[in-house]
Design a protein that fits this description.
It is globular, with a radius of gyration of 20 Å. The strands form 3 sheets. Strands 6-3-4-5-7 form a 5-stranded antiparallel beta sheet. Strands 10-9-8-11-12 form a 5-stranded parallel beta sheet, sandwiched between helices. The longest helix is centred in the middle third of the chain and has 14 residues, at 143-156. The chain starts with a strand and ends with a strand. Strand 8 (163-167), helix 5 and strand 9 form a beta-alpha-beta unit. It has 2 domains: 2-141, Quinone Oxidoreductase, Chain A, domain 1 (Alpha-Beta Complex), CATH 3.90.180.10; 151-245, NAD(P)-binding Rossmann-like Domain (Rossmann fold), CATH 3.40.50.720. The chain has 246 residues and is of the alpha/beta class. It has helices spanning 39-45, 93-96, 137-140, 143-156, 171-182, 194-198, 229-238, and strands spanning 2-8, 11-16, 27-36, 61-69, 80-83, 120-124, 128-130, 163-167, 186-190, 207-209, 219-224, 239-245. Helix 4 (143-156) packs across helix 5 (171-182). Bound molecules: zinc ion (2 copies).
Length: 246
């Protein structure tokens, strides 16, 4: 059994994993089958996330199988699952209004709590979500990044035919393109990287282009998925008057 660790910024170590501590009643042990590498894993590695703590085991986009279930965990062994990446206290004002994602007491696995780039790990069962049989592991590994987009697009209340510009065609950008298109929006995607734009060639109804080709004041909604200061600044000029971006 081995695990990946970031000992300190720019120092990645593959090492034998210590045996897991005995399982608490509320925990499950998960055998990892798939893990996605997120931009934030790279930022932790490069020392660019202020609240990261070291050493830390990266990995929060995880799919696995429950191998052992604590006495009150209530998730049968053999269940295929994904995990939520942030812990929460369950008691503060945010948790009480179902905004656990912004709980001030949260820990983020892979950043300031150990993540799942390991053969197996244990976690409180309340952070574990079973997945249906028809969703493959390869697709399930995208559930966590897709949840980010579902959360964002819900706020926009998209209507069929709304024009949406997606800036950046990384994982989050492409998932935004797919979901906004599925919801009936008229989607345009931009990136400065030609190779990323090429990934959209098999979707001819999506306009995929370089940012320079976009006219100002054109879109009902702009989704910023590149994460650079320049793209955050430029997204406002592509919005129609009075509309929204996130
Ligand atoms: Zn992620
Ligand atoms: Zn809380």
């Amino acid at each position: 059994m081995s695990e990946l660790f970031i000992a300190e910024p720019n120092s990645l170590v593959l090492r034998d994993s210590a045996p897991l501590e005995s399982l608490r009643a509320n925990e499950v042990k998960i055998r990892v089958t798939y893990g996605g590498i997120c931009g934030s894993d790279l930022s932790v590695y490069r020392g660019k996330i202020q609240h990261a703590t070291y050493p830390v085991r990266p990995g929060h986009e995880l799919v696995g199988v429950v191998e052992e279930s604590g006495s009150v965990a209530n998730i049968p062994e053999g269940t295929r699952v994904v995990v939520t990446p942030n812990t929460f206290c369950g008691e503060c004002e945010y948790c009480l209004r179902e905004q656990e994602n912004i709980c001030p007491h949260k820990k983020s696995i892979g950043i300031n709590a150990d993540g799942g780039f390991s053969h197996e790990f244990s976690i409180d069962a309340r952070y574990v979500i079973p997945i249906p049989d028809e969703v493959s592991d390869e697709k399930a590994v995208l559930i966590e990044p897709l949840a980010v987009i579902v959360h964002g697009l819900k706020k926009l209340n998209l209507r069929k035919g709304d024009s949406v510009l997606v800036i950046g065609c990384g994982t989050e950008g492409l998932l935004t393109v797919a979901l906004a298109d599925y919801l009936g929006a008229d989607v345009t995607a931009v990136d400065i990287n030609e190779e990323k734009l090429k990934m959209l060639e098999s979707f001819p109804h999506i306009q995929a282009t370089h940012p320079d080709a976009i006219d100002p004041d054109t879109f009902d909604y702009v989704v910023e998925a590149a994460g650079t200061p320049q793209s955050v600044q430029s997204c406002f000029r592509w919005l129609k008057q009075g509309d929204l971006c996130f």
